[in-house]
Write a structure and sequence with these properties.
Radius of gyration: 16 Å
Structural class: mainly alpha
Distance between the termini: 22 Å
Number of helices: 3
Shape: flat
Oligomer: single chain
Order of helices and strands: HHH
Length: about 80
């Protein structure tokens, strides 16, 4: 990340875009939860409710050279 990308200006437009991304993420989670409850999704589903900002804030600032390591319950690492 560049120094500029680490401290983006929080203009009204930027805040609205972040909110929109977080709402879209929450709606997707809610939809997945409903599909899982109705057994339309097989396997294990771990919902991310309340963590929308984790995805919405840093992801747009990543560059090609950046890497993400995600850890999940039960010690699994992807």
């Amino acid at each position: 990340m560049t120094a500029r990308s680490l401290n983006p200006a929080l203009t009204h437009a930027r805040v609205c875009a972040l909110l929109k991304a977080m709402i879209r993420s929450r709606r997707f989670e809610d939809r997945c939860g409903g599909l899982y409850t109705r057994q339309k999704i097989c396997g294990v589903l771990q919902l991310y409710d309340g963590e929308e900002a984790i995805a919405a804030l840093p992801i747009p600032h990543l560059e090609d050279k950046d890497r993400i390591v995600a850890t999940y319950r039960e010690g699994r690492i992807l």
